[in-house]
Amino acid sequence: MVVKQETKSMTGNDAASYAALFAKPDVIAAYPITPQTTIVENLSRFVDEGKLEAEFIIVESEHSALAACMGAAWSGVRTFTATSSQGLLYMAENVFWTGYGRLPIIMPVVNRCLAPGWNIWPDFQDSMAFRDAGWIQMYTKNNQEVFDTTLQAFKITESKDIALPSMPCLDGFVISHTTGQVDLPDPEDAFEFVGPYDDPVIELDVENPWAYGSMTGPDQYSKHRRDLMVAMDRAKKKIIDVHKEFEEYFGRSYGNGLIEPYGDDEADLTLVTLGTIGDEAHEAIDRLKAEGHSVNALRVRTFRPFPVEDIVEFAKKNHKLVVIDRAVSFGHEGPLRIEVEAILKRHNVDTSVSGKIMGLGGEDVPYSAIMDLVKKELKE
Amino acid sequence: MIEVIQISRGGSGGITGAKILAESAMYEGLDAQAIPKYGSERRGAAVEAYIRFSNAPIRIHSPVYEPNHAMILDISLLDRIDISKVDPNGVIVINSKKVPEELKGTGRKVAYVDATGISQELGLVLSGFTLVNMTMLGAFVKGTELISFENLEKAIRNYWGEKRAPKNVEAAKRAYEETKVVRA
């Protein structure tokens, strides 16, 4: 049975903060950076007001923020932080340490482009720079999905058979500072879904000391990395299962949790997107269909692990994929396009793929621009 | 879908006002969105916000380019809004003692009120900035008739809490009563 929920008006950052509040992390360490700041402000207020019994560690940098979270995660407690852009870059060393060390930390990344020029607007260059860091990455399309994904992330990340940190991604300002409606459950129901973190992935024990992160020879090192590869693969099913369980509790779903198809199963052209451009694409699809065009869409919700099988199956039924990327691998293409193209080739799917890089540094991507792109691609 | 553009000066509370307007639309049973336009905006600079109301879930995340209504919290910002882009049947809600000269003879529906005067009388001044945001929301709901005053009041009370709500509600209520709606 779906639990009772109340529709509230709040920003995307508020939604991330409520998900954290309801999951009751024991330790939060964070350093403020635009546009993530209000997440940290909210959580610090929750702790101050006694709504959240967490250790809120004030640090002097993002590098230290994640370092503090790593220590907390090793001690076997639920751990949360958040960052953006330059802040994420500044903690880079520890981002990889966390991923490769399999530390169960939840860290929403409020996407903001990278300097120079100095710009606080969104693109996915920041989180895409860490796609190989061993973190689960899920991109959200609106305020509601930020709440839902952040809550799901705790359950996925803290599973003993997964033990991979999570990075729910939300477009800076476009979601983070935009007010919209979010259906919020009672805190007790949200906590019941997440569950207590009483069977930790890892837990330092002073009575039984051991070393971690010491000198590791090639044999052991490569084994660790292969374990991580396998865990990422297992995470796909976990994400689907947790998403299904979430739907039973709260009545909301986003495709199967990995990908969210929109519209008909088969169409002349398919838009492939990430983040809020995916929501805007739905608007474009409805308008294009009203004009008589055969179009549908596929929003990649989970980027790491990459939902290879799901994308391949969807692509097989379709004819032309147009991938919109909000980031660039300079010297090549947009990361989403590169990966979509590669898996189709490997699976002998002859659906054509093209793409366009849009929305860099907060460049607006209105549905009208998406419609123009589709019409141009349909002619080619 | 109804789309609104609001322009204010940084420090006068426009962004907060847009949020509260979205919440009052939610109480009206609508899906609502308030987008602040951030950049290098600072105190005193022109700040835009966009508000959408719809019967269906809003999937658009772009700024508003062709609004149904415009809300101008500082008369010196009137020239920053391209009035030709505003729906001819829409309302221009403005903080002004009279119909601005620029709008006279345009046939535009104008809702005007001396929001600065009302806010100052009520002591809604912070760090030298007169807070006209709640006052102008009273003018907006009067001029556009999209949202009931009761739902606006509910959103204002929810945001400001017991202690600070009364003055803000009073400002909105006075503007609601004193706003004049005319064809310019």
How would you describe the overall organization of this protein?
The complex is a heterodimer of chains A (380) and B (184). Helix content of chain A is 42%, strand content 18%. Chain A has 13 helices and 15 strands. In chain A, α1 (12-23) crosses α2, α1 runs parallel beside α7 (143-157) and α1 (12-23) crosses α8. The mean pLDDT of chain A is 97. Chain B has 184 residues and is of the alpha/beta class. Chain B has 4 helices and 9 strands; from the N terminus they run βαβββββαββααβ. Chain B has helices spanning 14-27, 115-121, 133-144, 149-178, and strands spanning 2-9, 31-36, 46-54, 69-72, 91-95, 109-113, 125-126, 129-130, 180-183. A 7-stranded mixed sheet of chain B has the order 2-3-1-4-5-6-9, with helices on one face. Chain B has a two-stranded antiparallel sheet with strand order 7-8. In chain B, α1 crosses α3 (133-144) and α1 packs across α4. Chain B starts with a strand and ends with a strand. The model of chain B has no long low-confidence stretch (mean pLDDT 95). Classes of the chains: A alpha/beta (380), B alpha/beta (184). Chain A binds chain B through residues 7, 9, 11, 35, 120-121, 142, 171, 173-175, 177-181, 276, 279-280, 282-283, 364-367, and chain B through 18-19, 22-23, 26, 31-36, 38-39, 58-63, 65, 155.
| Assembly annotation | heterodimer
Helix content, binned percent of chain A: 40-55%
Relevant CATH superfamily of chain B: Pyruvate-ferredoxin oxidoreductase, PFOR, domain III
Q: Low-confidence stretches of chain B at least 5 residues in length (pLDDT < 50)?
A: none
Structural class of chain B comes to alpha/beta
CATH architecture of the largest domain in chain A: 3-Layer(aba) Sandwich
Q: How far from one another are the termini of chain B?
A: 25 Å
What's the total number of strands of chain B? 9
CATH architectural group of chain B? 3-Layer(aba) Sandwich
Counted beta strands of chain A:
15
User: What is the average of the pLDDT values of chain A?
Assistant: 97
Query: Radius of gyration of chain B, rounded?
Result: 15 Å
Low-confidence stretches of chain A: none
Overall pLDDT confidence of chain B:
95
Number of domains of chain B: 1
Q: Output the strand order for the largest sheet of chain B.
A: 2-3-1-4-5-6-9
